[in-house]
Amino acid sequence: MRQIINFNAKWAFSKQATEIPTEIYKDWNFVNLPHTWNAIDGQDGGNDYYRGKGYYAKSFSKIDLPESDRYYIEIKGANSSAELYLNGEKLASHDGGYSTWRVDITENLAAINLLVIVVDNSANDRVYPQMADFTFYGGLYRDVNIICVSESHFDLDYYGGPGIKVTPAINGNDADVEIEVYITNGKIGQDIKYTICDKEDNVVAEAVANDTKVNLTINNVHLWHGRKDPYLYTAKAELVEDEKVLDNVSARFGCRTFKIDPENGFILNGEEYPLRGVSRHQDRWGIGNALLPEHHAEDVELICEVGATTIRLAHYQHDQYFYDLCDEKGLVIWAEIPYISKYMPTGRENTISQMKELVTQNYNHPCIVVWGLSNEIGIGGSDDDLLENHRILNDMCHEMDKTRLTTVAAVSMCKMDDPYLKISDVVSYNHYFGWYGGETDMNGPWFDKFHETNPNIPIGCSEYGCEALNWHTSHPMQGDYTEEYQAYYHEELIKQFFTRKYMWATHVWNMFDFGADARSEGGENGQNHKGLVTMDRKYKKDAFYAYKAWLSDDPFVHLCGKRYIDRVEDVTKVTVYSNLPEVELFANGVSVGKKTAADHFFYFEVKNEGETELVAVAGEFKDCGKIHKVDVFNEDYRLKEKGAIINWFDIDMPDGYLSLNDKMSDVLATLQGKMLFMSLVGKLMGGKGKDGKMEAMGFEVGPEMMSMMGGFTVLRLFTLMGGMMDMNFTKEQLLELNAKLNKIKRPKDKKK
Questions:
Q1: Could you give the dihedral angle defined by the CA atoms of residues 720, 722, 724 and 727, in that order, rounded to the nearest 10 degrees?
Q2: Which residue is catalytic, options 238, 376, 584, 704?
Q3: How much is the pLDDT for 512?
Q4: Contact 459, 427 (CB under 8 A)
Q5: 3 state DSSP class of 710
Q6: Which residues pair with 713 in a beta bridge?
Q7: Over the stretch 305-317, which tens digit does the pLDDT of each residue have?
Q8: Which domains does the chain have, with CATH numbers?
Q9: What distance in Å separates the CA atoms of residue 580 and residue 412, rounded to the nearest whole number?
Q10: Between the CA of residue 407 and those of 309, 314, 401, what are the distances in Å?
Q11: Residue of 459, 449, 444 whose CA lies nearest to 496
């Protein structure tokens, strides 16, 4: 019988080693797995985290292992490339940091053994990802096991797969279930016992055969129906010889049908089932990607609390345990490989191997409905080589899995008629109108235009969001990083997206703040702060509750702005979120009034005098907070960029004239402003492109790009563009530009 021995304890580790050790040296550190060497430096900013080799060594005696015919090392995650050595001999290498791989070590075992795994997250041009907005944590950051099996056993070699493939098909009230197994070193006279058990472990179908593929029937099948009813069966296979079980495998599965309709969105088991949810990165504050099971479980519970029906598991294969949890909770999953941002012609084989691993290892999970081919890979346009790479991946997915669809996540600059969008079965876009330029009200109309232009392509939104830290204001505006602007942004996006049922899925970017060591935004470097929950999972931002109000059936009320206590204004706006029909707000025990809101967002005006205790009441639920009247704005609430050349409040803003703090749309609304922009931006960011058209960073500045740029203040546009182009604008340059803008009158129909 198969035995799996966890091998996580007491590995010697070194980043200073330069060669394969012949013994465990005293100056090495001892660590337990999971482990990453970037848990701290991968989250503190500066884009200077260690990217190189890490050496892991572990000694063991063969006598301590169970007696068995064959022994495999199973590595569930080594980022991003790795080599395995046993007793000084190299046995295997692997490229791809997010999937399981195994090595047969049987022939090289000695009485006393030294196992060494060299993990390398160095930059290269062949293994994805290499350019992306997240930290590529190095290390052996998932479990390592030894698997002990008989000479004849279910396959352990093919792309890290489970050796069993279960394909259910609904047939009326029943399900026809094809079970296929893969056997290594099988012999004549061996049989396979197949069993399907229900949730209570009762046998509902079984067969004994010497064939590696059988079809069984589940009568009166219980369907897997997402969050409403995530019912799971278990398929078991035993390899039997002379009535002795040599090996065994099992896989949980669910029976369901789905389709994605360009008009009606996602349909599960014949019913419309809107996919409204979040994206998830796997890392945590101070832990990196070296997560324990309880971390995964907490993430799923938080995602379920917000009411999500779907998760985009970005931008790589996640831990098998997390997919198991999604099966159990009924969360519908988009699974993808890290084919992201920067297209590498020398990386094609790696995209193929990572996709084979993703599909092979995750085929049995009923939660997964789409395989993601790539993310923003066409950011610079799509050439023939990139398109061919996508066609290969798309065809391979359909060949390996005839039950699921494929998708891509395109970036805003990707034109609606790009041939890249015609390859996958469905499409989603990453849009940040209202954060990276543009206005919040551009989102819904953009999707309406795509839907009208491409009526047969199911369209969704794979990323949207904005950053929020512990900054606050009563006058939120794009780019201020306040919790109030993030809440406003998501209120607007919820109303636009959730009322368009043709959108097959929407995924907030992101459920949790995550490590991005190259980032220096919002006053806290090293993180992307677009999460609805902080990176340590300790604080749910107000926007979290906006989604809970729309998506969750669990009754609640939430008073927004609890961290925004000191307020200057005499009358202040107080926002309450609830999924109950009516909310009453009390200020120091006196009712401010009762309100109803079809959109679940309740707004009150409250006199701000002295100390005010606020209590929001909805049915039997209540939530409390307080505000405090101050004469001068509390500067602790205002973002001051660390290391910024110039902050917005240091800029001259004469009445009636433009400045760096005005939006580009206001600047471009004036003839002088347009001429200034065309000369300055054209010079700094690329000038004329093909056919004499204006370009910025290689993108044609057409109407859509202009609309996006229009939402930025001039200062924020130049700050972000400078970072993306690795071009530093000096304080003198910016002040010189501000002086020129100060001479241009503000458009007459615009207010300051």
A1: -170
A2: 376
A3: 98
A4: yes
A5: helix
A6: 663
A7: 999 999 999 999 9
A8: 3-147 (2.60.120.260), 164-253 (2.60.40.10), 273-554 (3.20.20.80), 566-635 (2.60.40.10), 650-741 (no CATH)
A9: 36
A10: 18, 13, 14
A11: 444
From CA 322, how far away is CA 333, in angstroms rounded?
Answer: 11
Average pLDDT of the residues in 457-480: 96
For 400, 416, 644, 716, the CA distances from 647, given in Å and listed in that order, are 54, 37, 6, 10
Report the distance separating Cα 466 and Cα 436, nearest Å: 8
Report, as an integer, the average pLDDT of 377-386: 82
The shares of helix, strand and coil residues in the chain, as percent rounded to the nearest 5, are: 20, 35, 45
Are 494 and 597 a contacting pair, CB within 8 Å? no
Identify residue 350 by its one-letter amino acid code. Answer: N
Q: Is the pLDDT of residue 170 over 90?
A: yes
pLDDT tens digits, 264-301: 999 999 999 999 999 999 999 999 999 999 999 999 99
Q: Is 376 a catalytic residue?
A: yes
Contact 650, 622 (CB under 8 A): no
Q: Which residue has the tokens 């876009």?
A: 429
* Contacts with 402 (C-beta within 8 Å, 6 or more apart), sequence order: none
CA dihedral 300, 303, 307, 312 (to 10 degrees): -100
Output the six-digit token pair for 59: 């000694």
Structure tokens that stand for 87 in this block: 């007793």
Q: Which two tokens stand for residue 194?
A: 């197949």
Three-class DSSP category at 483: helix
284 forms beta bridges with: 288
Determine the Cα–Cα distance for residues 407 and 436; give it in Å rounded to an integer: 24
Q: Length of the chain in residues, anyone?
A: 752
